[in-house]
Amino acid sequence: MTRKMVKIMKKEIVRSDAAPAAAGPYSQAVKFSNIIYLSGQIPLDPENNEIVSGGIEIQTERVLLNIKLILAAAGSCLDNVLKTTIYLSDMDDFVIVNKVYEKYFGDNSPARSTIEAARLPKGAKIEIDVVAFAG
Question: Helices in 12-112 by DSSP H: which ranges?
Answer without folding.
Answer: 56-73, 94-105
